[in-house]
Specification:
With 464 residues, the chain is mostly helical. The protein has helices spanning 14-49, 53-56, 58-81, 83-99, 101-106, 110-137, 144-169, 180-202, 210-218, 233-254, 256-262, 269-294, 299-319, 322-336, 339-347, 355-364, 368-382, 390-414, 423-433, 443-454, 460-463.
Length: 464
């Protein structure tokens, strides 16, 4: 099947750009809500099924293992049929997995929950490949990190809504030892997925193709995406960094409720769930703050700084007692905020014909969330939950090394810059300067110049 005909984000008008941006951003709420509920279910199932912390991490293994297994197929599929059909497949799998929570709760089978979570993970990995990639290329690369942070901010809103619902319905009264409310919550989640699928069916979503993206960067002299995929080292090492970071982020959140209860300062499970929700609020605030900062600061440089702060506060969480560690946990959530979107946009930047395949690889890195929680759970069962936070610290350190390497590479090629640079415009100007006044620009370059006026719609992010 031939890839669908399409355009680039730079060629969309203001209204069409804003509509596409808002429509795809709505998807981020779906997996944010599912992810927020997952971390609380981890602790809830320990009580209902009487399982250990290590056994409870099977949910994370299923959810994030689905990303590792399914994301490459999702990227390949979307190369052939486009973003919109990929979104339909993702929402379909997401709804099916949520529906199967009903019989799992009805018959109280932990294995059923694990299987249903795997199906949800397959759906969400498909949505992540589509939505993250689409938002990244929906405009100039200069503001790709800011755009994706803004969209993923709504994932953060849904992430703290999940624990809030759980603290009210999962951990109070008779619900603290039953699964009755779980089935109703996930039935509503399935309904949300079905409604979004119907909405996307009737909406016109412009297709942005890899051929158009490759032409866009070639005409301004950027050659980063040329050559075979295995030579796209920025993307390949981005996969490693994403695997390490997501593993760290997931395991920090997975054991947050246990950590807060075990601090010995009078925090029960219900209050711990509320505090965890406030941690997610902190994360979300940090993401929207990051949108503003990324308009001015180089994304790789800012990622290196945030990665260092994540490493530091994670180590402090593992060593400090009482409320000091709780405060460091809140700081850790704040500095996690921009990391995932920045790694994604930096790893898929200027990939051209490899954009969707590279997006699938970076999203595959979310599978790191399957490996870190069992390691931390095993350490938490043997020692203390607090000391087990040494495990995610290793992931933050690996991410920081990736970001620092990008800063060095950029400085070597184009000189060090503290500010966020418009690489396309700079290369276009350099290309234009190579023509004498009597020569005319190539037709493609003219098209690029005129489309820059349209891409000013991308400055909507700066306004926000």
């Amino acid at each position: 099947m031939a890839p669908p005909a399409g355009t680039t984000g730079a060629q969309l008008g203001r209204r069409q750009w804003a509509f596409s941006f808002a429509l795809v951003t709505s998807l981020f709420f779906t997996w944010g809500f599912a992810y927020g509920l997952l971390d609380v279910l981890n602790a809830h199932f320990q009580t209902v099924f009487g399982i250990s912390k290590l056994q409870s991490t099977l949910l994370q293994l299923a959810y994030f293992g689905a990303y590792f297994v399914w994301a490459p197929f999702a990227g390949t599929f979307m190369r052939r049929v486009g973003y919109k059909k990929g979104i339909h497949i993702g929402l379909g799998l997401y709804s099916i997995g949520a529906i199967f929570f009903w019989p799992s709760a009805k018959y109280e089978t932990y294995g059923g929950f694990v299987g249903s979570t795997f199906v949800i993970g397959c759906g969400l990995s498909t949505l992540e490949v589509a939505a993250n990639s689409y938002i990244s290329v929906l405009g100039t690369p200069q503001y790709a990190a800011a755009r994706l942070n803004f969209s993923q901010g709504f994932q953060g809103v849904a992430s703290f809504a999940g624990p809030l619902i759980a603290s009210r319905w999962f951990f109070t009264g008779a619900n603290a030892t039953s699964l009755g409310t779980v089935q109703w919550v996930y039935l509503a989640v399935a309904g949300l997925g079905i409604a979004l699928n119907i909405l996307f069916f009737f909406c016109d979503l412009p297709e942005i193709t890899e051929d158009a993206l490759a032409e866009e960067i070639d005409e301004v002299g950027i050659t980063d995406g040329q050559g075979p995929f295995w030579q796209q080292y920025r993307c390949i090492f981005g996969f490693v960094a994403q695997t390490a970071y997501v593993g760290a982020q997931v395991t920090v959140a997975s054991f947050a409720v246990n950590f807060l209860v075990d601090q010995g300062v009078g925090i029960d499970q219900s209050k711990a769930s509320q505090l965890f929700s406030l941690c997610q609020v902190t994360f979300t605030v940090g993401r929207f703050v990051g949108v503003l900062v990324l308009n001015f600061i180089d994304p790789a440089l800012l990622l290196a700084f945030y990665g260092f702060c994540c490493s530091l506060f994670c180590l402090l969480v593992s060593q400090l007692p009482g409320y000091s560690a709780v405060a460091c946990l809140f700081c850790l959530f704040f500095f996690e905020s921009i990391c995932y979107p920045c790694i994604f946009t930096l790893g898929t930047k200027n990939l051209g014909l490899h954009t969707k395949r590279g997006s699938g690889l970076i999203v595959m890195g979310v599978g790191g969330g399957a490996w870190y929680p069992p390691a931390q759970g095993a350490l938490a069962d043997k020692t203390y939950t607090r000391h087990s936070y040494l495990v995610p610290a290793s992931g933050y350190i690996a991410m920081t090394l990736y970001a620092a390497g990008l800063v060095v590479d950029q400085s070597r090629k184009n000189g060090f810059s503290f500010r966020n640079r418009d690489e396309l415009t700079a290369n276009l100007k350099r290309t234009n300067d190579n023509f004498s006044p009597t020569e005319s620009l190539p037709g493609d370059a003219k098209g690029r110049s005129s489309s820059e006026k349209k891409v000013s719609s991308d400055e909507l992010v700066k306004v926000v």
